[in-house]
Amino acid sequence: MDKFTENTIESKTIYDGKVVHLKVDDVTLPNGKTAKREIINHPGAVAVIAITEENKIVFVEQYRKPLEKSLIELPAGKLEKGEKPELTGIRELEEETGYTTNNLSLVTSFYTSPGFADELMYIYITDEIKKIENPPAGDEDEFVEILELSLDEAKKYVEEERIHDAKTNYAILYLHALGRF
């Protein structure tokens, strides 16, 4: 047993939504005291680093209500129940960008906010993309614009905080470390 384990005494569901499940757990701490933990359960998500034949990275710009501003990000989306991450990646790439691929390689996975959420984000990469003649429709409440940027342009957007989320910053750092651009 992990010496830092917190044992759940009671768990109370606060909200059960389309994307997240919020609960409050009463826990026993390793020192015997008790505490409350606010926890968001999330099904997980997938992002795709899609690189064009011209060595441009495909991004989407979309409005993020919690931030009250638009961000430029990797195409990404939530895992559907029982869906394999690779299929989520292809589905989101198609819906958000109109590109598809038959070749995704896993780069990494990480927990987005382990202090309060269990969301596991997978990042895949592909440089074998092609435009779809009739791409599938995206979510009806999602409005995105597609951008194709060089790595240097993406780094500039990071400096300007137009790219300002963890998954996309990670992808840019990863591509920079590869030195392939």
UniProtKB/TrEMBL annotation:
Family matches, as Gene3D superfamilies: Nucleoside Triphosphate Pyrophosphohydrolase
> In Gene Ontology terms, what is a biological process of this protein?
ribose phosphate metabolic process
This protein's UniProt keywords: Hydrolase
Entries under SUPFAM superfamilies matching the protein: Nudix (SSF55811)
Q: Identify the Pfam families for this entry.
A: NUDIX
Q: Name one GO cellular component term.
A: cytosol
Question: Which InterPro entries does this entry report, sorted A to Z?
Answer: NUDIX_hydrolase-like_dom_sf (IPR015797), NUDIX_hydrolase_dom (IPR000086)
| PANTHER family in alphabetical order | NUDIX HYDROLASE DOMAIN-CONTAINING PROTEIN, UDP/ADP-SUGAR PYROPHOSPHATASE
Q: What is this protein called?
A: ADP-ribose pyrophosphatase
* Natural source organism: Virgibacillus halodenitrificans
